[in-house]
Amino acid sequence: MEPTRADARGNRARILEVAEEVFGRGGSAASTEEVARLAGVGIATVFRHYPTKRALLEAVLVKHFDRLCGQADDLAGSADPGRAFFGFFRHLVDDAAGKLAIIEAFTDAGGDARDKADHRPLDLRAAFGVLLARAQEAGAVRADARLEEVYALLVGVSRAAAHLHLDEQVRARALGIVFDGLACGEGAEKSRPEDA
Amino acid sequence: MEPTRADARGNRARILEVAEEVFGRGGSAASTEEVARLAGVGIATVFRHYPTKRALLEAVLVKHFDRLCGQADDLAGSADPGRAFFGFFRHLVDDAAGKLAIIEAFTDAGGDARDKADHRPLDLRAAFGVLLARAQEAGAVRADARLEEVYALLVGVSRAAAHLHLDEQVRARALGIVFDGLACGEGAEKSRPEDA
Predict the structure, then answer these.
(1) How is domain A54-184 classified at the architecture level of CATH?
(2) Which of B4, B34, B96, B192 could potentially form a cystine with B158 if both were Cys, beta carbons 3.0 to 4.6 Å apart?
């Protein structure tokens, strides 16, 4: 039986989902063969959808960033902007090791910063900026903190967590210090984001 | 005239000093040839002292870390432990881009984490821990912060500064947030390390 168009769409979605998991775990060391095997399709099917490893990784990155941006957009309507901001900050740090592994694999496969996927990080930064601004308006984050340095702290804690293989407790305590710094400065009414 | 032993020692010191500057600026892209040229010696002289690029980079790293450890040791006797701790934290972040570039060059030249130079980062971490403990005893840093997470924040801000090419102002504001988080939590008496 010939594969139908619905089969092809299903395969494509499954390949992407499996690839996100495989490269998020293995980085550059992971292979397209492993993706095909775990998705239950032949390697030829993977290459029909994504002619190169780089094309596959770019699609994975786009999907990954689009999901994060969607989550940020949902949180932008939250009734508790402080909780939304600190919760999303923590979510991004928890997500970072996988995302950095996918980016490493993408770069090693010849992807570079001028590729299409690279607009997505800017979109995410902007969406994160909206949550920050709302948290500041609500008095949950000091008014004098700018997106530049808050984003730098997000990138910093994320990279330290991945590089030092921080366990969950240390990561949470490091975040707690940064959150206190964001909450306790001038312009913030609440003193600690305990409930984020 | 034959080179004397004092000439050889002078050459060695100059090579090391120039190498630290050249690789701290250029990372893996810098070359031993450039070091020889700027040190005013022949490439054969460099290789007589350091038979491989890796050996040269290891010596540069050892020297770099030893200097930082020496600075930390000097600060451990400071009459203002809060100022000493926050000042050294900032100094390490300012120093990070150069140090990371040298480490990158060392790794690309075949150096790895089990090499001799790698004990030095542990020595530095320990020296940083002494300054942290003294600042906590003095009430300048919250008592509940452990070295693990404070060191993770140091690594994080350092890597973010290097990766995002943060300018001095953004770096200072990011550090200000972390310092406030370290100072304003429970167990700290002073609220802001303004004078660090």
Answers:
(1) Orthogonal Bundle (1.10)
(2) B96
Instruction: Give the residue carrying structure tokens 């804690």.
Output: A157
N-term to C-term CA, chain B: 53
ipTM: 0.85
- DSSP-assigned letter for residue A12: H
Closest by alpha carbon to A101, among A154, A162, A58?
A162
Q: How close is the nearest chain A Cα to the Cα of B186, in Å?
A: 10
User: Can you tell me the distance from the alpha carbon of B8 to that of B11, in angstroms, rounded to the nearest whole number?
Assistant: 5
Q: For the purposes of burial, counting CB atoms within 10 Å of the CB of B135, is it exposed (0-12), middle (13-18) or buried (19 or more)?
A: buried
The CA-atom distances, in angstroms, between A94 and each of A88, A98, A169, B17 are 10, 9, 12, 41
The 10s digit of each residue's pLDDT in A136-163 is: 999 999 999 999 999 999 999 999 998 8
Please state which CATH number belongs to domain B57-184. Answer: 1.10.357.10
Show residues of chain B in contact with A157, CB under 8 Å. Answer: 152-153, 156
For residues B78 and B68, give the distance between their C-alpha atoms in angstroms, rounded to a whole number: 16
User: What does the domain layout of chain B look like in residue ranges?
Assistant: 57-184
Cite the DSSP H helix spans in chain A: 5-26, 32-39, 43-49, 53-75, 81-108, 119-137, 147-163, 168-184
Task: Give B162-187 pLDDT, tens digit per residue.
Answer: 888 899 999 999 999 999 999 975 54
Using the Cβ of B89 and the Cβ atoms of chain A, whether some distance falls under 8 Å is answered with no
Rounded to whole angstroms, the Cα distance separating A194 from B12 reads 55
Over range B1-12, report the average pLDDT: 76
d(CA A55, CA A67): 18
User: Nearest CA to CA, how far is B9 from chain A (Å)?
Assistant: 38
